[in-house]
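[scheduler] slot 2 assigned
[scheduler] job type: sequence-to-structure, two independent chains
[scheduler] chain ordering preserved from manifest
[runner] begin chain α
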Amino acid sequence: MPRSLPPHVYFLVSAVFHYLGPAFAVLLFARLDALGVAWLRIASAAVVFAVWRRPWRYWDRLDRRVLIAWAAVLAVMNSVFYLALERLPLGTVAAIEFLPVIVLAAVAVRTPRNLAALAAAVVGVYLLTDVHLVADPLGIAFAAANAVLFAVYIMLSHRMSRGVSGIDGLALSMLLAAVIAVPIGIADALPAFTDPVALAAGIGVGICSSVIPYVTDQLAMARLPRATYALMVSLLPATVIGVVVLTQIPAPKEIVGVALVIAGVALHREAVSGACGANHRALRGHAAGEGAP
């Protein structure tokens, strides 16, 4: 994708593919266990990045501590994400994942509207997850771990996007993540090597879940503040894709929860937009004052 496109275009592509890939990955659970699907996703993405970027050339030019931390987050985050998907609907997992992200945005922009947005999101997530809290506490635990790691992923990704090359840093981290994830998922992934359909599907999931969205994340983050990107992460793509691909139709209570979370996102956007407008007007006024006799 050309770098001249607005960052919001990259975000839109990332948002769709972040959940389109996992939606199809759920369909693979009939052939492979969750950790096997997760490892195939990471390993196939690592192979694509290795061929495309040859990222080892930048090892001496990148912050190794950030690279290793990022790799560990990618390996564990993807693993617990699929463990959660094995037990909970995609929309519910995405809702839990979203809560630390809106908190991340709220910390950066402190206004009464942000507090209202956070409250709406909390109630929305509660409505989406309450039915599962007793039924599958382990699934909730995996989803919560994934949520925290996703917020860390955003912070590390944003930091790397401002470096020598965010995409090359991503590629190198993905290679390291594939190695870190070997003891976690290789045993469960072995059946795919004798099942061409499962192997091809796993590779497809890796491209849709880790190559396309993570690259567009880097292209968007390079031109957006971290808080702005965090508050743009929306539940809507996950909800729509979960319904269309997995036929996971939400109950009325869950629809209200989704609406509240989306309302929280909208409220945050308005708050940030208003703040940016105020800052812009202040700068114009200051410039006019300097130019006055």
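[runner] end chain α
[runner] begin chain β
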Amino acid sequence: MNSISNVWNHPKTSAAGLLIAIVTIAGVLSQQGVTMGTAGTGTVVTLVSAMATALLGLLAKDPGSPSAATNSTAKLGAWALIALLLPLPFLSGCSGATVAQDIVNWTPALQSAVATVDSTAALLAPADAPIFTAATIGFDAASNLLVAQAKAYLANPSASVLAQLQAQVVTLQQQVNASLLQAAKIANPASQQHALSAIQAVGTIVSAMLALVQSVSSKAQVAQMAAQSTIKLAAVRSYLDEAQTAAIVADHYGEPVGLARVQVARTEYAEAEAGF
């Protein structure tokens, strides 16, 4: 326990030491030809090394900066290290049954988020409500179908049911992305903020479910799903609030927000690399 306590009480020193160790080990592995798989145009080893180096740069910022900011950066670096070494909760299911249960576990949150969308129009300026309603009109039907298919997959994790789940999660993901683009056109700042926040809550959960479905899909199936995803993450990323996304994930998995932030970033990277 003392070692764990020291890591938390002295996060900058501990994080720096671990980062240096990661960079060193990654260098040795690269020299020996160990890649641990591919990541984009490089390898997992080079990606981890690059992330560790970048975090070292963050930790090495001007020592004269405010202590609160330094501690925050250091603790984020520590969470980043933990996230690098631990599997993602929604990308590494041990079995199809585990992943299926996790997908179903997200369904109450999805239904609640869609219900919030349904009530959000009343919070918007009169001129903006019709735009929002038109942009989100298909959420209820699509989410209900996704929930039903998730439960069907849990009961019977067959290839045919998985194919239906793959198609539906991409369908809802695309509806969310299209809705974000439409909501971004709302001119009233307050209305736009309400609209984007409500849609993003749905999108965060759908993205988590998409990642879970990806984890039990073959490369060919993921490629097919990505091909059906015509509105890419890059097109809507600027309209997303990272803090809101991390808070939803942290609350669902009962983990610190700092860890959730890094996990969300890793998941977004993985989805972008897959073509979403």
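[runner] end chain β
[qc] chain β: The first strand starts at residue 38 and ends at 39.
[scheduler] slot 2 released
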